[in-house]
Amino acid sequence: MAKILVVEDDESIRNLIKLTLQQFQYETEVFEDAESAWEYLQSESADIGIFDLMLPGMSGLELIEKIRKDEQLHNFPVIILTAKDSEIDKVIGLDQGADDYMTKPFSVLELTARIRSLLRRSVAYSEESHGFYDGGLEIDFDGRTVHVMQKQVDLTFKEFELLKYLILHKGKAVSRQELLNQIWGYDFVGESRTLDVHINSLRRKLGEPYDGWIQVIRGVGYRFVSEN
Questions:
Q1: 189: Cβ–Cβ under 8 A, 6 or more apart, which residues?
Q2: What's the sign of the alpha-carbon dihedral 69, 72, 76, 81?
Q3: Separation between Cα atoms, residue 31 and residue 8, nearest integer Å
């Protein structure tokens, strides 16, 4: 049974999430502040985190930043669940290291669908252990690391999965729907704009000239190309 860690300072929302997850047979640990959640993660494990952004004391973004810098926790999947619904807030959240972003008010069915998707993706491609090396771009699929000109680039869980999927289908125009199905899951019920936000964030992190290796195929989706 998967364990979900919830950080939410609103008691009514916290209880709603806890009750919903328990009904779906998830083990749940709930906290009203980020400091308590961080202390918990130092000695206990969880499979996914659901974080509000606006919290007393340490913010949700600060908690994500600490997790991504931690050697043991840096791949811990995180869903942001917040009332901050502007596009720039979403971009900042994803750039900071969140794997998914939902806004309040929210559908509990959509939340559980995204949790199932993240759980699936966390064990996907386990049979593959090769990587991609071309010029200054080096990707270790097994170690889940990306280096550009020998400098490590920190990608979110979803960004890494997107890059890996496109590379494994190098030269092929991959449709938006295929990417949503494969990376977010066939039961994904969110906005397709989510894909564009992740792709844009991924390209910014790769920088020139590698951002150009992820090409937009108008009316279809995306294609990965490289020099070799």
A1: 107, 109, 110, 113
A2: negative
A3: 6
DSSP 8-state symbol, 83: S
CA 141, CA 41: separation in Å to the nearest integer? 25
Question: Residue 14 in 3-state DSSP?
Answer: helix
Classify residue 171 by its DSSP letter: T
Quick one: residue 125, left, alpha or beta (phi over 0 = left, psi -120 to 50 = alpha)? left
Greatest Cα-to-Cα distance within the chain, rounded to the nearest angstrom: 55
Using CA atoms of 190, 195, 196, 199 in order, give the dihedral in degrees to the nearest 10: 150
Rounded-to-integer distance, Cα 172 and Cα 152, Å: 27
Could you tell me whether strands 137-140 and 151-153 are parallel, antiparallel, or unpaired per DSSP bridges?
A: unpaired
Q: Phi first, then psi: give them for residue 189, nearest 5 degrees.
A: -125, 15
The CA distance from 176 to 160, in Å, is 16
Per-residue confidence band for 193, with pLDDT thresholds at 50, 70 and 90: confident
Helix (H) or strand (E) holding 192: none
Closest to 93 measured CA to CA, from 113, 110, 115, 68: 68
Amino acid at 186: Y
Closest residue by Cα to residue 121 from 181, 189, 200: 181
CB 76 within 8 A of CB 49: yes
pLDDT range class, residue 122, cuts 50, 70, 90: low
Residue 118 is encoded by which pair of tokens?
A: 């993240």
Taking the model in full, what pTM does it have?
0.61
